[in-house]
Amino acid sequence: MPITQNQGSTAGGQTVTVTGTDLGGATAVNFGTKPAAITGNTAGSVSVITPTGAGVVGVTVVTPGGVGGPEPFFYLPPPVILSVSPGSGPVAGGSTITISGRYLASATTVQFGGSTVTPTVVSDQELTVVSPTGAASTVALAVVTLGGTASTAFRFVDPPTATGFSPLSGLPAGGTLVGITGTNLLTTTGVTFGAVPATFAVLSDTEIAAMAPAHAPGTVTITVTTTGGNDAAPGTFLYLL
């Protein structure tokens, strides 16, 4: 007497179907000691709305010919989101997002505002998902599981534009404080001088302060990377002889 979808929310309200033989005329379907509302019945199946519950309970079907079961039904607690990393991504989508929390193993979908994607379940504590496209804004990120739904915020960000920097040169030993200007810089995750990463601080959505790293004499390009993309500042930074 198998149950189609033998997991559900502790809050109940899920439609499930018990299949088998000689089920016609069922008078009751019980989840443990709680009766379920019967919504459909044939000789081969009984459809019901689950009652509230917790843990694992036995499902029994009462018919004029006797009692069938029990079959196990697993009540799942609602999911909990503890963190989303990164908490923002490009409007073009395609960013891999890690969602950490509890009770995530039965996740079926993740919603980014009005867009729905299918997650990869890593464990009961972790999901990964590839962000869809979206307009620059903050949207609700909702994880939908068989136990319920949990929501948090996710921000779609436009790609950055690096418009300039000052000073234009520094010593090969590094240590020059360089101010970088532009737009959409608030989610900056990295600044490089050539291929060398620099220590930086985000001052605002239009300004970054970066400490030039050590580098051989010559010119390099300064590139800013954010969760929305990356951009190279015009011109080059000169490491003096």
Automatic annotation (TrEMBL):
<dbReference type="InterPro" id="IPR014756">
    <property type="entry name" value="Ig_E-set"/>
</dbReference>
<protein>
    <submittedName>
        <fullName>Cell surface protein</fullName>
    </submittedName>
</protein>
<feature type="domain" description="IPT/TIG">
    <location>
        <begin position="78"/>
        <end position="157"/>
    </location>
</feature>
<dbReference type="GO" id="GO:0017154">
    <property type="term" value="F:semaphorin receptor activity"/>
</dbReference>
<dbReference type="InterPro" id="IPR002909">
    <property type="entry name" value="IPT_dom"/>
</dbReference>
<dbReference type="InterPro" id="IPR013783">
    <property type="entry name" value="Ig-like_fold"/>
</dbReference>
<dbReference type="InterPro" id="IPR031148">
    <property type="entry name" value="Plexin"/>
</dbReference>
<dbReference type="GO" id="GO:0005975">
    <property type="term" value="P:carbohydrate metabolic process"/>
</dbReference>
<dbReference type="Pfam" id="PF01833">
    <property type="entry name" value="TIG"/>
</dbReference>
<feature type="domain" description="IPT/TIG">
    <location>
        <begin position="159"/>
        <end position="240"/>
    </location>
</feature>
